[in-house]
Amino acid sequence: MTALFALATSLLWGLADFGGGLLSRRAPALTVVVVSQSIAAVVLGAVVVATGGWSEAGPRLWFAVAAGLVGPVALLSFYKALALGPMGVVSPLATLSVAVPVSVGLFLGERPGLVQVAGTAVAVAGVVLAGGPQLRSAPVQRQALLLTLVAALGFGTVFVLITEASTTVTGLFLALFVQRVTNVAAGGTALWCAVRRGTPALPGGGLPWTSLPAYGFVGLADVAANGTYAVAAQHGPVVVAAVLASLYPVVTALAARGFLRERLRGLQAAGAGLALLGTLLLAAG
């Protein structure tokens, strides 16, 4: 079950990042974060009320609050990076986020078997190769690379925090809701400060209402990915869950290839194949 939920996480995050990066080319990245997370918060609020999630309130929710403070920084950094550089190049670099939960898992005493170690190495190498061939030729700015590293550290931290925020399904709904409300509060405050400094919050023509479904998809896919990752990490080795979930950059790169016609070179295709092989090894281990 760990492998299934972790792979679902990579698919959801990959599509959410593709959508968020695409929207950030038309509107300020901070606006994309606030609007998408606001929609997710409203939906989650309704789910919490329907499931009676308020009864699960407790000290663990502080982990959700912390994740909600870190999340907007990671999302904003990553969306800006995706808007600055080719998605097929920038996105795979975010796989460095796996270092945080893997380190925590090892610190807590997890010792993956030989097959899992091999699968981890092959999967991570595959994700890096999926973006590496273009680094020398693509116009990837230093700012985009720095933003991606900040995002990777933030995503990895959220991985760890959201896993600790709940122990039950209804508690997970409440934790995700608290995380999203904190996301919106932190992002909204940052957006308000940016507007006060003269930065426009909306594109020239205003927020296109026809794009709201896309914003909703980004927000809901992101929150669903957080949920599936929490389930994966709670029901199996954190190392396995983290590595499989970190395959989301491959999904983003493939989406960019399919929808934006970003060129996928031979070495990138080989990298995607290695990532798949690593996934199979991890699942088998």
Automatic annotation (TrEMBL):
Keyword Isomerase belongs to the record: no
Domain EamA: 3-130, 144-282
Keyword Membrane: yes
Origin superkingdom: Bacteria
Membrane spanning stretches: 28-49, 61-79, 113-132, 144-163, 169-195, 207-232, 238-260, 267-284
Alphabetized InterPro entries for the sequence: EamA_dom, EmrE-like
Coiled coil: none
Keyword annotations of the record: Membrane, Transmembrane, Transmembrane helix
The family this protein is said to belong to: Belongs to the EamA transporter family.
Identification of the protein by name: Membrane protein
Organism: Streptomyces asoensis
